[in-house]
Amino acid sequence: MLFGRSANSGGGGSATAAGGPDAGDGPAQPVRRKRFHRQLYFWVLVAIALGIAVGIAFPAQASQMKWLADLFIKLVKVVIAPTIFCTVVVGIANLGDLAKAGGLALKTLVYFTATTLLALTVGLVTVNILRPGVGLNISFDEADATETLDEASASDAEGVSGFILHLVPDSFFSAFVDGQLIQVLVLAILVACALTFMGNRARPAIRALDTGANVMFGVIKIVMYAAPIGAFGGMAYTIGEYGGEILGNLAYFMLSFYTTCVLFIAVFLGVIARIVGFNLFKFIRLIRDELLIVLGTSSSESVLPRMMTKLEAAGAKKSVVGLAIPTGYSFNLDGTAIYMTMGAIFIAQATGADISIWTQIGLLLFMLLSSKGAAGVSGAGLVTLAASLAAFDSAIPLAGIALIVGIDRFMSEARALTNLIGNGVGTLVVARWNGELDRDRLRHVLDHPNSIDMDELMSYDNAPEKPGAKAEADAAAGAGAEPVEPSAPAKEPAPTG
User: Staple partner for 342: which of 66, 123, 384, 416, CB 3.0–4.6 Å?
Assistant: First the structure.
């Protein structure tokens, strides 16, 4: 039996697989495995390989295929904002205690700030050790970065007050129309607080929002069938448009950045995962589908709803997942943080700028703030880096950003992959810290990743229903008691043989 959801259960999480933890004393059913050609990761991997081949063989035509990746990303982004809104509202409202919700939010921000600072420090140390820009003396054309510099200037002009004002949308619906995830998150928290104050009167609204989230997950399931097409178009465009750049003087910088990302994931996130009680590499195996989609599209946003569903099924409580993942997409961008410090010092090295250790520390602390709010979409890291350099233009030439504009697409893939893994690990850490992680279920899922069937998780019409749940809910409602909440995990009885 595979993991599935139930429409009538309480608490928020995912159903436990029969044969897994909490399955009872009966014999466990063997995990049903899909054939490899029916796995999403297989077709995404094939699409990436075809994209590379087309990019090499037909670079001119391949450079025109970016629209395929853009189309897939737009299809996903259509439902991201309402999905986050409904999930966060239901998750916080189901806690029933604003003090508990506030504690969860505080722990989330503390952890994300700590890991961002760690990522910035790792990037700063490695770029000073490897020194990829020393001796290059590369000339650059400022015109190559005109668009990036214009966007950075607009961002820098807003300052801290502009960032704070940006947290609040112009109207309730403008956050959804513009796709501003951090604004959607703020609205969701406000609505969740209001529903909590209403008590039992808010139950119909919570049920309606939960149903809306279910609908959005159903749409995501349909859109994911186009993931291989998006991965093919994104990879073909990347190789066809920028393939020659990797053979130039910037190859060592790219290799240094990829090496640093791998180091950060394997060593630092690996240690954090071990402390929490799970194996990082098994976790990476669990999210392989999502990683391959991100590799092809260079956007971590493309798998946000799938990550929320999978982490919930792996044992993290729904309220934690609903708050941590959307928050992480603005406040826990580890890959972007590494890229920002490495990119800034690389530009200084390549242009012969001499910056002291104190200036580097000041740059790091400034980037700790400027990295917050960077979107999880392709190219956002470059603009954020340029906006940070604008504050240190006297030490590092801002126009030097033109040096890395041509290879930013390759860097974007590593940033997005690191961001995704960092947010997944962070969600499990916060869940464990808050005492809302089912460690037995997580261990079972990591050992048997095929016990999670994403098709079943996103098919609410076929979800198993807890026997008698509807009758119990109706009776509770008629008696004036608090009804059974939707969208929480129902445990299926183990087979009795």
Answer: 123
How many domains does the chain contain in total? 1
What DSSP assignment string belongs to 282-294? HHHHHTHHHHHHH
DSSP codes joined into one string, 242-257: HGGGGGSTTHHHHHHH
468 inside domain: no
Two tokens at 491? 């445990």
24 lies in some domain = no
> Residue ranges of the alpha helices (H) in 332-436?
334-350, 357-370, 380-390, 402-405, 408-433
Whether 38 is in a domain gets the answer no
CA distance 81 to 431: 23
The residue written with tokens 């040096």 in the block is 403
Mean pLDDT of the chain: 77
* Gap between the Cα atoms of 443 and 145, Å rounded: 47
- Report the distance separating Cα 94 and Cα 190, nearest Å: 14
- DSSP line for 468-480: THHHHHHHHHHTT
- The CA–CA distances, whole Å, from 73 to 229, 230, 233, 297, 329 equal 11, 8, 11, 8, 15
As a whole number of angstroms, the distance between CA 232 and CA 68 comes to 8
DSSP state letters, 193-253: HHHHHHGGGGHHHHHHHHHHHHHHHHHHHHHGGGHHHHHHHHHHHHHHHHGGGGGSTTHHH
Q: Residue 130: which domain range?
A: 43-451
SS3 383: helix
**Alpha-carbon gap, residue 24 to 10, rounded angstroms:** 19
Report the CATH number at residue 372.
1.10.3860.10
Which residue reads 């990591």 in tokens?
446
pLDDT-derived band at 403 (thresholds 50, 70, 90) equals confident
Look at residue 432 and tell me if it is in a domain: yes
How much is the pTM?
Answer: 0.73
CA-CA distances (angstroms) from residue 309 to 214, 329, 452, 454?
11, 16, 10, 8
CB 427 within 8 A of CB 296: no
- Terminal CA-CA length for the chain: 14
**pLDDT value of position 424:** 94
